[in-house]
Structure formats: structure tokens, C-alpha cells
Write a structure and sequence with these properties.
This protein has helices at about 25-30, 205-230, 235-240, 270-280, 320-330, 355-370, 395, 420-440, 505-515; strands at about 5-10, 35, 65-70, 75-80, 90-95, 105, 110-115, 120-125, 135-140, 145-150, 160, 170-175, 175-180, 195-200, 245-250, 285-295, 340-345, 375-380, 400-410, 445-460, 485-490, 495-500. Helix content is about 20%, strand content about 25%. It is elongated and about 75 Å long.
């Protein structure tokens, strides 16, 4: 028997509570929304299409790559004292590598980088004429914090590091790393040679990495080609013809600055979003615009377009982030018949995102949407991480036409690897139903949007009969399955499910199986 391997990633649910939602409001949008998330389109997520990054020189050293350096002469690791900060010198005295011995790259070009340390300062030379010993005290990088990594042709993890003074770093003493070596060679006893370890499990592949990696000359064309081919009107037509009625479209904060966003981001995603609204209207679909990446990063994940994996969104970013929402909800889309909802932020992460700050932002973001439209829903994402799933209920209860986006992940739990299709489905009906009951109150917010991920292996002849309804999205010429949704509508204590599996190449065969 032939077996097909593919992934099911996202579950989207909108929950309606009859005692709270006037029927007239539900009829406005033909709720529930049965939606597909168009991930990796206008906000890049490299795990979905790794080949997008293949043309970048030194593409294992992109922004945010975490590296460690061990001296071949001393057999010790480089580290800033105390993880960096005031008075911190860079030493070569660590027997093993952990947080303080790990540097995050800021890429300047294919071989030049800044090294950001544990406490977020940058390694650099002292001020002019103050010596060659390296320190880690600067909060912003400049020329003296820029280094060139020279890789050995035979072993690319064997490196020498050239400082801005033209000399190479050398480890002649455990107490100080200096930039004063003018020699050459790759021998083990050469004090300027280091073994570079790349922490491959912590690499980032997001919008920042692809745009800064290709650079301003190539990135615009690479992204334009991707936008033009990855999602087309054919996809919208297919979704509509198979019973789905909405799409969720992730966008990045730089879209509000299109066509000339701050570097390294490139213009053009706004036109692609305009196209999506037209395609949605042509095919009877609604659009949920999701601010997936906010400036400063709300969760440190690559899909937030972080440069280096630090989560730095906070109070100082609220005004600028609200301005993006104001742009998205303005006359450009507010009166568009396809607009269904605006999601103010995707997956803020606790405890890095303070709840009070998040509520302040949500309040301002909600008001920004309401300035332009009273009809569109406003979606508030719950915090991931150590946070109470009910923490937004009372806050959202005072707002009109809102949804709380609650994400449940199964994809990253090994428990599900051995589950059959039916066991995965049963888990949703049983455990997830209980989880959802916990965040549902009779006098709470109108709607919940729930996102679930899990991975399954499916046998060709037994997949489709284990579910009530199946929706399929064509994904020709895709390297991996995109992000399907399971949609569930809860009416008081009962609900129905629509399960949709993503199959990249066997659509006609699947339809025949379903028909039997």
C-alpha cells in the first residue's frame, strides 16, 4: 500500500455564543469563517520553502545565527566577561560553551558581521588609540564593532576574524582577546585560528534574513518572484469552490511603509495584498488581515521578522504598531467588501510581553480599527508561554465585535508522532474541546479563533473516512505543505468540525477517495 507523508499544521476555530452574539451580526459575515492561513507569502517563513534562501552567499551565516568560537591554540572558548556590559572585556578562558560564549550575528555583507553578546551589547575595539583588546560594551554597532570572518577553503568552520583595524584577532592569553595579529596560516598553534560552531537548531529563516541576505540589489526581485508565484488567484478560486469562505493573510509592519520600507525590507507586499483583496472579492471569500510581524519582535520567532532572535517589543513600540493597524484599517481596506477582520498581533510571547502593555496596545489598536470601520472584527491574540488562557476575557468582553485568537500546538510534541489519524481527531474532539471550554464564558467575548498544529502520517485509503468533512488546497510546486486549518464552530456545548488536509500532488486521487 502506498503511503503519503504530509503535515497538517493549523486549526482555526471561531466560536459563537448565542446569548452574546446577535443573529444579525453573525449573518453579516456568514459565520463561522472557514479559513486557510496563507503563511510564507507576504511574511517569509523559511521552513516552508527552504530553497528561497539557496541563492544567498554564506547562507549558513545569516542574521541571528548563533555561533561559538574556540581557539585552536588555547583550546578555550571566547566569551565576554559577565555576558557583556559596562567594563566587559572579551576573554578566551572557557572550557565549554553556553550562553555567554554564544554570539548572535548581525550580517553586514556576506563576510562581515557584528557580534551581539548575551546581554545584547556588541563586541568591538576600544576607542581610537586605546589599545587592541576587545570589549563588549557598545549598545549599537559601528565600524569598530564590525568584523570579517575568513573561512578556510577546506574546512569552512575553521576561521580567522579580521577587525576594523585590518588585523586579525588572536588568543595568546586567556585574559584578553586582542586584534593585533598580522600573520597568516591555518595551523593549530596559530593564535588567530578558531573553530566556529554554528548552533544549527537556533538558526533563523525569516523576512529579515532573506532580504538582508540577498541584499538591496537582489532581494526585491527574489521576493517579487515569490509573491507572484507562491499564491495566485487560482488558489483563491480553488478555496472558494471547495467550501472555504475566508483567508487569513499574515503581513509585516513594513507594509505600512511600502513602497520604500526601511532597509533591508523591500517594497511590493502592499500590491500583493491589494491583489489578494481583489481575488477574494472575485471568488466570494473574506480576508482576515493579520499583523504577523511587529517592529521589535513580539515573540523572537523568525516569522516575527526578528533580526537576531531577541524579543524587544514593548511600550516604546506601541505607537508605531498602532500606526500600522491604522494604515491597514484605513480607507484602503475599511470599506472593502472582502474585509472581515484585522488581527492586531500574532502570538505575543509571555513573559517577555507584559500583559498590561499588551492590553494598552490592544485598546489603542481596537480604537484605530473602529475609527475606520464598525463592521470588521478585531482579533486579539492570546499570549503564548506561561500565561493564563483567560487573561483577556474580561478585557475583551467590553469591546464590540472582537475575537480572541487562542493557539494550541501539537506539532512540537513527540506524543503525536505515533498517533493514528483517528487518534489525532479524537484528541481534538476530547482534549481540545475541554481546553476550549476553559476559555469560554457565557458573558465573555463573542468569538474565539483557535489554531492547532499537529503532524500525521496518513495511509492512502484510510485518511478521509475518519473525518466528517475534508477541505483540500492545491499546492502545486510547493516544497512543503502550507498551513491548513481545521475549523470548529461551537454553539453552547456542541460543535461541528471541518477537517482539511493539505496534499501537494494527489488532489484528483483524494477527491476520488472522498467520493467513495
Amino acid at each position: 500500500m502506498a503511503y503519503y507523508y504530509f503535515k497538517m499544521y493549523h486549526l482555526l476555530a471561531l466560536y459563537l455564543i448565542s446569548c452574546v452574539v446577535p443573529l444579525s451580526l453573525a449573518q453579516d459575515f456568514n459565520l463561522p469563517f472557514k479559513a486557510v492561513n496563507l503563511g510564507n507569502w507576504l511574511v517569509t517563513e523559511g521552513w516552508m520553502k527552504p530553497s528561497l534562501y539557496d541563492g544567498i552567499p554564506n547562507n549558513d551565516l545569516l542574521d541571528g545565527t548563533q555561533v561559538q568560537f574556540k581557539s585552536t591554540k588555547l583550546q578555550k572558548y571566547i566569551a565576554p566577561e559577565n555576558g557583556g556590559g559596562s567594563g566587559s572585556v572579551v576573554v578566551v578562558n572557557r572550557d565549554s560553551a553556553s550562553g555567554w560564549e554564544t554570539f548572535r550575528l548581525w550580517r553586514i555583507d556576506e563576510s562581515s558581521f557584528n557580534f551581539r553578546v548575551f546581554n545584547k551589547q556588541f563586541v568591538g575595539l576600544p576607542n581610537q588609540d586605546q589599545g587592541t583588546g576587545l570589549i563588549a560594551v557598545s549598545d549599537s554597532p559601528g565600524n569598530t564593532e564590525t568584523f570579517r570572518i575568513v573561512r578556510n577553503d577546506g574546512d569552512r568552520n575553521r576561521v580567522r576574524i579580521q577587525a576594523s583595524n585590518g588585523l586579525f584577532l588572536q588568543a595568546t592569553s586567556e585574559t584578553q582577546l586582542t586584534a593585533d595579529y598580522g600573520g597568516s596560516g591555518w595551523e593549530d598553534d596559530n593564535p588567530s585560528v578558531f573553530i566556529m560552531t554554528i548552533l544549527s537548531d537556533k538558526t533563523l529563516r525569516g523576512e529579515y534574513q532573506i532580504t538582508n541576505g540577498y541584499g538591496p540589489d537582489k532581494a526585491p526581485q527574489v521576493l517579487q518572484d515569490h509573491w507572484n508565484s507562491y499564491i495566485t488567484e487560482d488558489d483563491f478560486r480553488f478555496l472558494s469552490s471547495n467550501g472555504l469562505n475566508a483567508v487569513r493573510i499574515p503581513v509585516g509592519w513594513w507594509i505600512a511603509k511600502d513602497p520604500t520600507p526601511p532597509k533591508p525590507f523591500v517594497g511590493g507586499s502592499l500590491q500583493a495584498l491589494d491583489n489578494a483583496f481583489t481575488w477574494a472579492q472575485n471568488n466570494g471569500l473574506k480576508v482576515i488581515v493579520d499583523l504577523h510581524a511587529v517592529e521589535g519582535s513580539q515573540n523572537a520567532n523568525d516569522h516575527s521578522a526578528t533580526r537576531d532572535g531577541y524579543q524587544e517589543w514593548g511600550d516604546s513600540n506601541i505607537q508605531d504598531t498602532v500606526a500600522v493597524i491604522d494604515f491597514l484599517a484605513s480607507s484602503r481596506y475599511a470599506n472593502h467588501p472582502a474585509l472581515a477582520a484585522v488581527e492586531l498581533m500574532n502570538e505575543p510571547m509571555a513573559p517577555g510581553i507584559n500583559l498590561d502593555s499588551l492590553k494598552n496596545y490592544y485598546k489603542d489598536g481596537y480604537e484605530a480599527v473602529r475609527k475606520h470601520t464598525s463592521n470588521a472584527y478585531v482579533i486579539l491574540s492570546n499570549r503564548l508561554g506561561p500565561a493564563d488562557a483567560k487573561e483577556l476575557l474580561s478585557f475583551a468582553g467590553g469591546l464590540n465585535r472582537v475575537a480572541i485568537d487562542v493557539h494550541f500546538y501539537s506539532l512540537y510534541s513527540d506524543m503525536f508522532n505515533s498517533f493514528s489519524v483517528q487518534q489525532n481527531v479524537d484528541f481534538i474532539y476530547n482534549q481540545r474541546a475541554s481546553d476550549l471550554d476553559a476559555v469560554t464564558t457565557s458573558n465573555g467575548p463573542l468569538t474565539f479563533v483557535v489554531l492547532m498544529h499537529f503532524e500525521v502520517k496518513l495511509a492512502q485509503n484510510c485518511v478521509y473516512r475518519s473525518v466528517n468533512f475534508t477541505y483540500l488546497t492545491k499546492r502545486t510546486q510547493r516544497e512543503t505543505a502550507n498551513e491548513p486549518y481545521i475549523i470548529r464552530k461551537m454553539w453552547k456545548s456542541s460543535f461541528w468540525s471541518i477537517l482539511r488536509f493539505m496534499i501537494p500532488s494527489i488532489l484528483e486521487e483524494v477527491m476520488q477517495v472522498m467520493a467513495t
